[in-house]
């Protein structure tokens, strides 16, 4: 199981609500994908234009399949137009799984 952390820097505060709507639409599509477990959106309390989208997937492979999918590719421009810089993506694995101490936390 992996957690994907996407960091967005929205152009300005007036675009935040629109960005949340687009992120919600992307998540609704992600929820239809095999291997999607959960997702959440967080806003920096000191800078509302700084947002994190965190999702949990069964594996890196299923995340990458979604990230490269036709539907996700179609949706990316809608969020990109609201950003002041390209978003960053980081993929994390649970430490105990990575170290081979457990097979899965599920």
| Tally of DSSP β-strands | 4
Strand content: 25-35%
Radius of gyration, CA atoms, in whole angstroms: 14 Å
Number of helices: 4
Shape: globular
Uncertain runs are none
Percentage of helical residues? 25-40%
Report how far apart the termini are. Answer: 8 Å
Q: SSE order in H/E notation?
A: EHEEHHEH
CATH architecture, by name, is 2-Layer Sandwich
Q: Which tags fit this structure?
A:
single chain; 106 residues; alpha+beta; Alpha-Beta Plaits; 4 helices
Describe the structure.
This protein is of the alpha+beta class and 106 residues long. It has one domain (2-98): Alpha-Beta Plaits. Helix content is 36%, strand content 32%. It is built from 4 helices and 4 strands; from the N terminus they run E-H-E-E-H-H-E-H. It has helices at residues 16-30, 60-67, 70-80, 95-98, and strands at 2-9, 36-44, 47-57, 88-93. The protein has a 4-stranded antiparallel sheet. A hairpin with a 2-residue loop joins strand 2 (36-44) and strand 3 (47-57). The longest helix has 15 residues, at 16-30. The protein is globular, with a radius of gyration of 14 Å. The mean pLDDT is 92.
Summarize the structure.
The protein has 106 residues and is an alpha+beta fold. Helix content is 36%, strand content 32%. Helix 1 (16-30) runs antiparallel to helix 3.
Helix/strand layout:
Blueprint: E1 2-9, H1 16-30, E2 36-44, E3 47-57, H2 60-67, H3 70-80, E4 88-93, H4 95-98
Antiparallel strand pairs: 1-3, 1-4, 2-3
Helix pairs in contact: 1-3
């Amino acid at each position: 199981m992996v957690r994907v952390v996407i960091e967005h820097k929205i152009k300005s505060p007036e675009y935040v609500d629109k960005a949340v709507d687009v992120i919600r639409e992307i998540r609704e599509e992600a929820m239809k994908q095999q291997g999607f477990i959960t997702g959440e959106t967080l806003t920096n309390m000191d800078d509302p234009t700084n947002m994190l989208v965190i999702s949990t997937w069964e594996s890196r492979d299923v995340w990458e399949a979604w990230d490269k999918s036709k539907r996700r590719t179609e949706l990316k421009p809608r969020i990109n137009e609201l950003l002041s810089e390209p978003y960053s993506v980081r993929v994390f694995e649970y430490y105990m799984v990575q170290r081979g101490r457990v097979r899965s936390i599920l």
